[in-house]
Design a protein that fits this description.
The protein is mainly α. The chain has one domain (9-176). 92% of the residues lie in helices and 0% in strands. The chain has helices at 2-29, 31-59, 65-116, 121-141, 145-176. The protein is extended and about 75 Å long. It starts with a helix and ends with a helix.
Length: 177
């Protein structure tokens, strides 16, 4: 009984991982389309939440000013997300890219410290620092880099999860025999 449950659970995880792979591939191939779909969906959700808050405000006899304020703010946020998702994503992309470049520069300082202590890790730290700076610059100049990177990470995660579940199912069969 437990074995059947664990196998069904593993198959469910594998199917979910396959869906994640599909989503990751979509992010890698067409990040702009995914961004547009997400912005439309999020914008619509915020606008709907705002409308429900406004309905709640008017239904309560105009006594709940909190519902009025949150309703108007939610509608405004929804409109901004709906129409300005590219600007919002670019803003976050720039912040993330600058943070990655900054982290790479800080790691370069760590490289100097490792080298002064005659550690063998200094060369590895130097290579990783340079790669971080290059990755930050790549994200800074490439609009779709963030979404593509997330897509690749989703694909890698899903593949690892599928492999893990297959191994798990094989181990269950070994314990049964």
């Amino acid at each position: 009984m437990l074995e059947n449950f664990l196998k069904k659970s593993s198959w469910t995880d594998i199917i979910t991982s396959l869906i994640f792979i599909l989503f990751g591939v979509m992010l890698v191939i067409s990040p702009e389309m995914v961004q547009a779909m997400i912005s439309i969906l999020l914008g619509a959700i915020f606008i709907a939440m705002g409308i429900f808050r406004l309905i709640n405000y008017f239904a309560s006899g105009k006594t709940d000013s909190y519902s009025l304020a949150t309703g108007v703010v939610a509608i405004l946020i929804g409109i901004i997300i709906f129409f300005c998702s590219g600007i919002i994503l670019s803003f976050f992309r720039i912040i993330i890219a600058l943070w990655i470049i900054y982290s790479g520069i800080i790691n370069l300082q760590t490289t100097i410290i490792w080298k002064d202590f005659k550690s063998r890790l200094w060369l590895l730290t130097l290579i990783l620092s340079i790669l971080m700076i290059v990755a930050g610059i790549f994200i800074l100049i490439n609009n779709g880099a963030i979404l593509q990177t997330i897509g690749v990470m989703i694909i890698v995660y899903a593949i690892m999860n599928i492999i893990e579940n297959i191994i798990f199912m094989k181990k269950i069969e070994n314990y049964r025999d």
